[in-house]
Amino acid sequence: MRLPESARSSIKWLLPGIGVKRWLLMLALSILMLGLGIGLLFRQFYLFSGIYRYLSLTFLPFWARGPLLILMGLGLIAVGLIGLNRALLSPFVRDGHQVVEALYRHRQSSQGPKVVAIGGGHGLATLLRGLKAYTSNITAIVTVADDGGSSGRLRRALGVLPPGDFRNCIAALADDEGLITQLFQYRFPSAGADSGLDGHSFGNLFITAMAEVTGSFERAILESSRVLAIRGEVLPSTLHNVTLMGDLREEATGTGIRRVAGESTITQAVGTIERVYLEPDDVPAYPRAVRAILEADLVVAGPGSLYTSVLPNLLVREIAQAVAASRALRVYVCNVATQRGETDGYTVGDHVAALERHVGPGLFPVVLANNNFAHADRLPQGVEHPRLEVPAGAPYALHTADLVDPVHPWRHDSAKLARALMRLLEGRR
Predict the structure, then answer these.
(1) pTM here?
(2) Which of 16-20, 259-263, 365-369 has the lowest mean pLDDT?
């Protein structure tokens, strides 16, 4: 016989990991002691002797009294739990989900591994959306070099750090990606030349306003994260205003280096990227980001734009030094598709080689890449899956898995990527 939904939900209070069984046991013992005390009082007074006889079931055979009282007690406890779950906790039930289910998920995820994800853009948000199913001990370390779109406009106009990547990560880590999260991601449409909201995201404006109200950008990110009740935290790699610089080799002649400034300019400029760096290049890392890396069980770089999302974080020297010093499993996730203007024609080995040119070899001893090329014919023109080619004797181990999103084959699938990373972590343990 299938139990009612309310009964099955109430039984979850007794599952491991909830943290309430000890208090239920204490309550049961106190009720037992209280019952024994009342029973003794009834037995001592002649006036209550008849009541005591019926309550103790002395009119039944001796062998039947104990089991029957136990069954009656368990039944009353079950009814009490169901009533408590309905009456006392009903104000906290949202969208048909019981509080005990939310509490159970929270307890389970809070015991998960400590994961640090380094990057920016949509790739990092994709990774975070998958990881939150396994743990709430997630720290996203986000680049502050973005200078395009809504973030760039707010950065130039108000002098704040670019909020766009932070907004995407906060939305991805939200416990319930419902109406509030959709509002956070809402982008105002073009309303004419006189509109100052054209192209701005509501979340970007919210974080910027929160920075003005709280007095600091990091406080704004913290308060914005609380609004969406995210699993984990989102941190900047540095709190200093930095510009991503790029040295590009001219394609026409193959010689001569042209220097461009700005993350958005680098991907649009004509030429092959030789090197990127930060200006200034000696900014200190955000201390909480360094501490998170050193305490992590798993550190992941990528997926995302190699030169404009992943590397800007690692170019903060203290971030790279913390990764090198960390005892965590350190994994670089190669993109499932090349990116026009950045990694045209790159193999998996080329991606890692570019990373090593900037931060040195051995920073990420494990590389995870996609091996499902079944949807290659649906990639945009000029985009291809990186070939699984690595140089002999490479100082890293290449692991492959099906990571591609079948609907958008130029992107990772959140669930597949998170599952592959958890398998790598379990294999190491």
Answers:
(1) 0.79
(2) 16-20
Helices (H), ranges, 159-269: 164-173, 179-185, 202-214, 217-227, 263-268
Helix axes 164-173 and 202-214, enclosed angle (nearest 10): 100
Nearest to 12 by CA among 106, 134, 92, 125: 106
Residue ranges in 234-347 assigned as alpha helix (H): 263-268, 287-294, 311-314, 317-325
Q: Render pLDDT for 216-246 as a digit per residue (tens, 0 to 9).
A: 999 999 999 988 888 899 999 999 999 999 9
Cα–Cα separations (whole angstroms), residue 178 to 123, 181, 184: 21, 5, 10
- How many residues are listed for the chain in this entry? 429
Under the banding of pLDDT at 50, 70 and 90, the label for residue 423 is: very high
- My answer on whether omega of the bond before 361 falls inside 30° of 0, hence cis, is no
How is the chain split among helix, strand and coil, in percent rounded to 5? Answer: 50, 15, 35
Distance CA 336, CA 411 (A): 6
Sole residue written with tokens 């999260």: 181
Burial (CB < 10 A; 0-12, 13-18, 19+), residue 247, is middle
- Count Cβ neighbours within 10 Å for each residue of 261-294 and write b for 16 or more, e otherwise: ebbbbbbeeebebebbbbeeeebebbeebbebbe
Cα–Cα distances (Å) from 229 to 14, 16, 210, 326, in that order, read 26, 24, 16, 28
* pLDDT for position 241: 92
CA dist 279 → 154, 232, 255 (Å): 20, 30, 24
Give the whole-angstrom CA distance, residue 86 versus residue 91. 9
Give mean pLDDT, residues 200-206.
91
| Domain spans in the chain, listed from the N-terminal domain onward | 5-98, 109-428
Which of 123, 162, 159 shows the shortest CA–CA distance to 140? Answer: 123
Report the alpha-carbon angle 141-142-148, nearest 5: 175
Q: Which of 188, 221, 227 is nearest to 207 (CA)?
A: 221
The span from the first CA to the last CA of the chain, in angstroms, equals: 41
Which residue, 163, 157, 145, is CA-closest to 241? 145
Give pLDDT, residue 347: 96
pLDDT at 426: 94
CATH code for the domain defined by 109-428: 3.40.50.10680
